[in-house]
Write a structure and sequence with these properties.
Elements lengths: L3 H17 L6 H9 L7 H16 L3 E11 L22 E2 L2 H13 L4 E6 L6 H17 L3 E5 L5 H10 L3 E3 L18 H13 L3 E3 L2 E3 L5 H14 L3 E6 L16 H14 L4 E4 L3 H5 L13 E3 L11 H10 L4 E2 L3
Parallel strand pairs: 1-3, 1-10, 1-11, 3-4, 4-5, 5-6, 7-8, 8-9, 9-10
Antiparallel strand pairs: 1-2
Amino acid sequence: MQTNKHKCTDRIAKIARGVLNGREILRHEALFLLQFPLEQLQIGELLYWANRIRLARFGPEIALCAIASVRTGRCSEDCRFCAQSSHFNTHLEPQNTGTDQLLTAAERACSAGAGCFGLVSSGRGPTDDDIECLAPVITSLSRIGRIQCAASLGCLTYEQAHRLYDLGLRRYHHNLETSRRFFPNVVTTHTYDDRLDTVNAAHRAGLRVCCGGIIGLGESVEDRVDLAFALRDLDVDSIPLNFLTPVPGTPFADREPVPALTALRTIAMFRFVLPDRHITIAGGREKCLHSLQSWIFSAGASGIMIGNYLTTSGRDIQQDLQMLHDLNLPLRDFS
């Protein structure tokens, strides 16, 4: 008679083989990956299959990306996790970053092996003047061609997205953050549909889209699965996954960090649901994964964000590069 442990092992293997053979997994199967009792199965069994799925689609190469803040703070939106919101007293000093500083940051990222560099600005969305101010950076990076320029500027109209494309931008980043059901618990100053509209506008303008979310906002495992399936339906090509770093002064300051094994299971579930999309692990990995950061690749991640984030510090870039070297994982061109 099969034990519960063996039943779990067999079920995960069956789901994984289906994915490797081109079958899309079902919602109840994705939930199972997050809900089976860990005492019935070592986490390595799940990661073994997630890694096989990653290798089948992307090989061993890992893509690196980096970001820089164009405008920090004074944001009109009330995203309850964010240090930049003007609704909360987080003692963040607002600042703007000049063109030369952004180009220098892009050059550092390129030298470290990053294939994509993102320009990130606070606020609901850019004005047309904001976009023109970024034109020298976008056009310079697109002409150099050694690193792909991306932007994360908030909500866009189709006309703005098309203007960014004309300037040379080829990738836009705009997260859903969480499931449609849980979204009103996270943001109230704009809607889930506003975010979908921006993703669709970017697509229509010819931009490739990075779209992901944050794990650990207080959402359920069902919300995590629903986010993964929403991203599958959107047909975005790159999924950045963040893990909440609680910020003092925000409503989510008291959220508990995501446990390391929960984070790894979540990455693996996203890989099962989204076998052919880049999954990049970004903010918060240092806080929740600690010494298990190198396991994210076995869990299915095909990329990492290097350097600092917007308002929190990342890991030293050389540590990440050493990690990849020790794992014999080559760098990938993000294009």
